[in-house]
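seq as requested:
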Amino acid sequence: MKNRSQLTLLIVFEVAACALLCAIISVAAFYATLVPDLFFSTPAVSAPTTQPPPKVVVASPTTSATAPRTPTPSHFNYKVVAGDTLWGVAAKFNITLESIITANPGINPDRLLVGQTLIIPATERVAASTPSLDQTASFVAPEVAALRMRRGPSEAETVIMMLTPLTPLRIVGRSRDSVWLEVIAPNEQRGWVAAQWVRTQLNIAFVPITGQTSVVTSTVVRLPTAVAIGTAPPPQSSEKYPFISGISDTSRQIYLGGRSIGNRVNVFSKVGDSITISGAFLYGIGIKQYNLRSYQQDLSPVVNYYLQDIARDGNSFANTSLAADTGWTAYSVVTIANANKGLCGANETPLMCEYRVVRPAVALIMLGTNDVPGNTTGTFERGLRQVIETTMQMGVVPVVSTIPPLQRSENEAARVLIFNTITRSLAREYDVPLWDFWASLQSLPNQGMGSDGIHPSWLLYSTDFTPENLRYGMSMRNLTALQALDAVWRNVLK
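struct tokens:
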């Protein structure tokens, strides 16, 4: 009996305990629904669904959870190939120009050598995703004095505004060949600029193609209205220097732009062919073997002005130009392959190289003699147009010369007239000085030409301006060249 009573009490106790425990659990559950985090150290988990649970990406302190970065080595090597520039390499790998220079101490940023090994700081590479193009900050290269913004991707397109160095630009497109960039200026003006004059950290390959390069195929020359071929008079020629014209405020603006990027006021460059590199052209003045005679008062100041500074291997009169050589056409001076390999960068044309090395304020340009025999008028026009534009963009005042007569055939003589009309027309279009050398020769015996019918005639002392010597073409070339320099100096540089 005693055992049975004890068992009964035990059962009653257990039932009571269970009832009490259930009550406690019920109360806890009730309060848990009101304050879920009060009783549980982890959040409540919802009921399972048919969808698999999402992957949880744990982000480290230095890595974004949404864009985990694969560990990369601190750097890798890159071998320079033909056509590479330091800016181009930086753009190719999406790194800053400064970072690549820092990683390669002692490197010459202006001249990369084919086969040269560069250290590329991989840890500074930009993520390979399409950037927000409208927010990409770019700048006109500081070595450019002015940059033309055009309506379309071609030199034949209308210029709509001028950009000064370090102008912030937004790149929004490019031509298929990446030669032209579509940009938006700070004033929201939209247009096209030459890519070679723009410095940016943006990888151009990411920029969408928004325009096609317009190739001018027509050989029709754009001539001023009612002007007969070969008879177009020099505009605004002065009574003092009848063969020099077109000196305006445009030249002054070009000069000031050049000064802002370090061009030298006491230096000029010579651009041309065999007639330009001839020892009979200005060299005698450079070595001080000259006599100005009756032109002493007018021209001695400008001669002394340019004698006082070294261009590269001599003063401007005696300097060996990097933008002139025998047989060169207008396109030759803007062709990279023709540049001096020892002095010019891998991606520089002879013209750009000359201007970078010498830093002139003025350039005497005479091209076309070698275009006449075989090139179309359209080819010559496009080449000379590129020469003029490059010269202006690098802050150098272009003094554009007509070419002398060719006397080897009637056909060549007639073509000279057409080519000179193109030259005069471009000088008007760009509002730059014109040096009408062809016109200065017309009153001379045999039009101032030598026996080969290609080069101007000359005596031993082509820089001695006696009346007799001035009957020869090269002496007249020297005289009118000094007059052109003097006119620009007095009206633009002073």
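The domain at 133-211 is CATH 2.30.30.40 (SH3 type barrels.).
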